[in-house]
Amino acid sequence: xxxxxxxxxxxxxxxxxxxxxxxxxxxxxxxxxxxxxxxxxxxxxxxxxxxxxxxxxxxxxxxxxxxxxxxxxxxxxxxxxxxxxxxxxxxxxxxxxxxxxxxxxxxxxxxxxxxxxxxxxxxxxxxxxxxxxxxxxxxxxxxxxxxxxxxxxxxxxxxxxxxxxxxxxxxxxxxxxxxxxxxxxxxxxxxxxxxxxxxxxxxxxxxxxxxxxxxxxxxxxxxxxxxxxxxxxxxxxxxxxxxxxxxxxxxxxxxxxxxxxxxxxxxxxxxxxxxxxxxxxxxxxxxxxxxxxxxxxxxxxxxxxxxxxxxxxxxxxxxxxxxxxxxxxxxxxxxxxxxxxxxxxxxxxxxxxxxxxxxxxxxxxxxxxxxxxxxxxxxxxxxxxxxxxxxxxxxxxxxxxxxxxxxxxxxxxxx
Length: 415
Ligand code: SF4
What we know:
The protein is built from 18 helices and eight strands. α2 (about 50-55) links the parallel β1 (about 40-45) and β2 (about 60). α3 crosses α5 and α4 (about 75-85) crosses α5 (about 95-105). It is α/β, with parallel strands linked by helices. It has one domain (about 15-415). The radius of gyration is 21 Å and the shape is globular. It has helices at about 15-35, 50-55, 60-70, 75-85, 95-105, 110, 135-145, 165-185, 190-215, 225-230, 230-235, 240-260, 285-290, 300-305, 315-325, 335-345, 370-380, 395-415; strands at about 40-45, 60, 125-130, 150-155, 270-275, 295-300, 350-355, 380-385. The two termini are about 15 Å apart. Bound molecules: iron/sulfur cluster. Iron/sulfur cluster (SF4) binds next to α7.
C-alpha cells in the first residue's frame, strides 16, 4: 500500500492571468445582460459559438456553469430541485444542477465575482445535439420558463467517417440559423467577420493542442487536472484574441518546464490516460491521489475534445460543420478506439482510467466492452471507476482510492 503523503501538483503561474481573463469574460457577460447593450446567447459547448460571436452576441455556456456548480460542490444539493419537477436523477447532472440553481436563485458566479447576481438572462438559446439530446431538453426548459427561442442543430451520432453528406447537412442547418439570429441581434451577418472569428478559433485550437502535447515530454509538465481548469478560455473564449494570447503565455511556461526538466508531479513513474469526464467536485482529491502514487494523469479525451483541426476561415460554414462533427463524442466506437490507441502511443501511456459517469452515458466509454478490447489490442491495462461529473452521491471515495492504488501497483509490478 502506498505511503500516505499528500503531494500537490505544481502551481502553473499563468493561472493568475487566466483568472483575470475569465473574470473579464464573466463581467462582460453580466454587463451585456444587465444593461442590454449586447444581446446574450446561450450556447452548448460545441455549438456554433463562432457564428454567435460574429453576430455580436455575448455568449454564455451553461455547461461551463454546470462545471462550476460541480467544482464548487454546490450541485449535489441543487440536483434534487430539478428532480422534484420531473427531471430524473439519471439524466445529465449538469442539466439538473443548472436548472436546480436557477430554481433556487443561486450561482457560484456571485461568490467568485462581486456584483454578479445571476447567470446572464438569454435572448436566444442555441444548441447542437452533437454531444447528446440532453442539451436540447435543457434549453427547452429555459425556453419555456423565460419565453425565449431555442434553436439549433440536430447532429448525426455514432459517425465512423465524417462524409460530405454529413457536412452538407450540418452546414445547412447552421446557415439556417442566420435569419433568426439576425432578427434577434438586429444586425446582418458580416461574412468577413465570420471568417476572422473562425480563423481565431483555429489559432486557439492549435495553441491548445500544443499545450496538451507538452505532456508528451517525460516528466510531463502538466496534468489532466490542470488541463480541466486551463481549458476554460478554449471553451468560453474560442474565436477571440484573448484566448490566443493566453495560450501563448501558458505554452511558454510549460515549454520552460520541459527545458528545466520539471514535471507537474514529482518523481513521475506511471503515465496515465483519463477517458471520460472529470469528477468536478473531486479534482483536488484525485490530483493528490495520483501524485502521491507518483502517477501523473497526463492526457485525456476530455481536454483534447477542444481541439478542432477542421476550422478554416476560407470556408466558415462547412469548416464549422466539419469541426463540430469530428468531435470524439460524435464518433463510432471503431473510430474512438483508433483515436485512443494513437493517444496511448503518442503520450507513452502505462494505464487508462475510464470514468463511468452515472449521468452521462455519452462520455462514458466503458459500457460496451471498449476497455477489454483496448487492453487486448495494446496490452495497456485499464481501470473503470464509477462516479459522476457533478452528482457526488454517485461517487465512492474509498472505493476509488482503493482501486486506483491497486491499479498503480499493478502497473509498477508489470513494468
Ligand atoms: S455530454 Fe453528458 S455532461 Fe455533457 S451535456 Fe450531455 S449529458 Fe451532460
